[in-house]
């Protein structure tokens, strides 16, 4: 029996393909690229292409394309990208009606075949979709997370680095709250190699960067006609790697809150430690009064879309 880890990627589209490529290059484990029956050959073809690429680059990983949940059985990590990506003019919330049935179908597959997996959800609207997946699977909150904060923080970091004319490697940023236009870039936790970003960038410039971060996904949708996939995939793989290698990384992630920050029965982005047991700790960092107010506004938005999901009966 193979001792390699197993990673199931639900959705073989742009993000799924990039996820598979990254996991393979990092040799995190064997990979299953899953999609719906009508896309079986597409998933198999992408998997074969990636396996052939291993001969060129030099990585060892078995990559399987499939539409059979049995091939995902026993996965250590499941990353969910299934659903329809945004189109120009759409908000993430516009995708609820389309993507909710898809997430419920995915949840049934995970519950039956991957009950012990660490599950990372990328599908939008993120905070509501990860809430529904946890509710439908019954998995403990330590093993269900949403990928948003890592991506949003990365966007903020890039904009900060370009404005300050410094290396991206020296910028540390933290973006909390829902994955939407009310997300909360936390300036009090944003530094450039230990120096407060406010020391290097004027406040009006910071405000402009915050505004751009909040609409960063929409900016890409408008340019490409579809959602981003390189950075989202890298962000999800960072979370998966932290779990698989027990790295104890501090990463902003959408997790189920049960009183933390004053919120209950809600998935929202907060700082967490991800290690071999999944979400090992939720950190309640000090926020300024302005940041608390922004988080409250973001939580209200998340609650609204989550309530829609809660009150939508199964088909």
Q: Mind explaining what this structure looks like?
A:
This protein is of the alpha/beta class. It is 43% helix and 20% strand. The chain contains 9 helices and 14 strands. The protein has a 6-stranded parallel β-sheet with strand order 3-2-1-4-5-6. A hairpin with a 5-residue loop joins β12 (249-258) and β13 (264-275). α1 crosses α8 and α3 (96-113) packs parallel to α4 (126-137). The N and C termini lie far apart (40 Å). The model has no long low-confidence stretch (mean pLDDT 95).
Architecture blueprint of SSEs:
Elements (H helix, E strand, L loop, with lengths): L5 E5 L3 H12 L4 E5 L5 H18 L5 E4 L10 E4 L15 H18 L4 E4 L4 H12 L6 E3 L2 H16 L6 E2 L2 E2 L7 E2 L5 E2 L2 E2 L6 H12 L1 H9 L5 H15 L4 E10 L5 E12 L2 E5 L6 H22 L5
Parallel strand pairs: 1-2, 1-4, 2-3, 4-5, 5-6
Antiparallel strand pairs: 7-10, 8-9, 10-11, 12-13, 13-14
Helix pairs in contact: 1-2, 1-8, 3-4, 4-9, 5-6
Return the string of H and E elements: EHEHEEHEHEHEEEEEHHHEEEH
Strand content: 15-25%
Strand order of the largest sheet: 3-2-1-4-5-6
Main sheet makeup:
6 strands, parallel
Total helices: the number is 9
Strand count? 14
> What's the average pLDDT?
95
Low-confidence residue ranges? none
Rg computed from alpha carbons, rounded to a whole number of angstroms: 19 Å
Inertia-based shape: globular
Binned, the helix content reads 40-55%
SS-derived structural category: alpha/beta
N-to-C CA distance: 40 Å
